[in-house]
Design goal:
Layout (H helix, E strand, L loop, with lengths): L1 H16 L6 H24 L1 H18 L3 H17 L3 H17 L3 H18 L2 H10 L1 H12 L6 H4 L2 H4 L24 H12 L4 H16 L3 E8 L2 E9 L10 E6 L9 H10 L3 E3 L2 H4 L6 H6 L3 E9 L2 E10 L8 H59 L1
Antiparallel strand pairs: 1-2, 1-6, 2-3, 4-5, 5-6
Helix pairs in contact: 1-2, 1-3, 2-3, 3-4, 3-5, 4-5, 4-16, 5-6, 6-7, 6-8, 6-16, 11-16, 12-16
């Protein structure tokens, strides 16, 4: 039974893949054959949805694709991906992401295709399918550039810390960042490599923006020993606080608050002058010991709360500022050690890619819903016109 259904599943996908290039007579035969496979998959999905519903959704997505029904295809691809992910069919999640990427690419939506292809690539990496990984790298380098580039430069990804302090530390007039010794570090030098891999995997696997933000905040706090974190993201022509979290006096972390708030109106949440410094210079600001750096000209937030350690980090995607992460520890000086900064640098490199992908995914979802509403409105209008035509014809007759 299982072997037969798997054959029907892949047979349907294989024939739908060649549909566009087939002759008209062959197309009818393909649709008839795929229709028979769909019927069998539907019966199995009714009895065992955990194993078969996402397979049926993927076949139906491809069916809609070849018939030019884009809105329906978009919805079905996402349902297939979500179902495969929820039921831990990693190989079929990878396949669904890849086919969705090809669908958007054929439609000319390269930015959206990039999101799905990166998801497919990450799934194949987790699956360990090296042949498929190589295949995607060769055929779709333009879609995978964002993640392939960091891999190629992994040995030098910590170059920020290898440069002289005067080059890699932002200088704030009243609060001079602490100067770390120049180090020549690479990923192989990082002690807890498994922690790094798990953290980057957690970020790369999140497609929903809110969940990605929460994951980034949690990882940043737990891996740097910060007791407060604020994530700032651009929204149009202004910057907004996207999320905040803090550990209270009893040592319990409060729930991560994900809600948009205008940055200019929140000077009591973080030091805005340091944030402005990072925005302008695109370099991190790090203060190891506030007692040695704070004076009467310091930021009002720092004068009021006097966190013992603070850090403000730019999240850069190919030189473009896509976010700012602010971390602090209220009680302990020297919390942000070299190893923790190295890990944070790598986390923010992955976060930059994941944030862009999540934003594109959100836009694709919004576009899908908008297109679906437009098609429904068009169908209603068409039905009304047909009805009016019949009424007019009846009057004439």
């Amino acid at each position: 039974m299982l072997v037969t259904m798997m054959h029907d599943f892949y047979d349907a996908l294989a024939h739908l893949a060649i549909y566009v290039g087939a002759a008209p007579t062959e197309r009818q035969q393909i649709l008839k054959r795929v229709g028979a496979s769909q019927k069998k998959l539907k019966e199995c999905a009714q009895h065992t949805p955990i194993d078969y519903q996402h397979k049926l959704d993927l076949v139906e997505a491809e069916w809609r694709r070849v018939l030019g029904q884009k809105a329906e295809a978009m919805e079905l691809y996402d349902r297939a991906i979500a179902g495969a992910q929820a039921n831990e069919y990693l190989n079929e999640e990878a396949l669904a992401c890849e086919l969705a990427a090809k669908f958007y690419l054929s439609w000319g939506r390269e930015k959206i295709a990039r999101v799905y292809m990166i998801d497919a690539y990450n799934c194949y990496v987790r699956w360990g399918e090296t042949a498929k990984i190589d295949d995607l790298e060769k055929r779709y380098p333009q879609l995978l550039e964002a993640i392939l580039q960091p891999v190629k430069l992994s040995a030098n990804i910590l170059a920020t810390f290898a440069a002289p302090a005067s080059q890699n530390q932002a200088v704030y007039p009243s609060i001079l960042p602490s100067i770390y010794p120049s180090v020549s570090a690479s990923v192989s030098d990082f002690g807890n490599f498994s922690t790094l891999l798990k953290a980057c995997q957690a970020l790369s696997s999140e497609r929903e923006l809110d969940r990605l933000i929460a994951t980034l905040i949690q990882l940043a706090m737990s891996n740097t020993k910060a007791d407060k974190a604020v994530l700032i993201l651009p929204h149009g022509d202004r910057w907004e606080i996207a999320a905040t979290s803090a550990i209270d006096n009893s040592g319990v972390q409060r729930a991560i608050d994900i809600s948009s708030a205008t940055l200019d109106e929140n000077s009591d949440i973080l030091p805005l002058t340091i944030v402005d410094c990072v925005k302008n210079l695109l370099k991190p600001v790090i203060v190891r010991d506030i007692a040695q750096k704070c004076d009467r000209d310091s930021d009002s937030y720092i004068l009021k709360y006097q966190p013992q350690s603070l850090l403000c980090w730019p999240i850069l995607d190919r030189g473009n500022l896509v976010g700012i992460l602010y971390l602090e520890n209220r009680l302990t000086a020297g919390v942000f050690t070299r190893d923790r900064l190295q890990l944070l640098n790598l986390l923010c490199s992955q976060a930059a890619i994941s944030l862009q992908n999540a934003i594109l995914y959100q836009k694709s979802q919004d576009y899908s819903q908008q297109l679906e509403r437009s098609l429904k409105k068009f169908s209603r209008t068409e039905a009304q016109l047909a009805e009016q035509k019949q009424m007019l014809q009846a009057i004439i007759d």
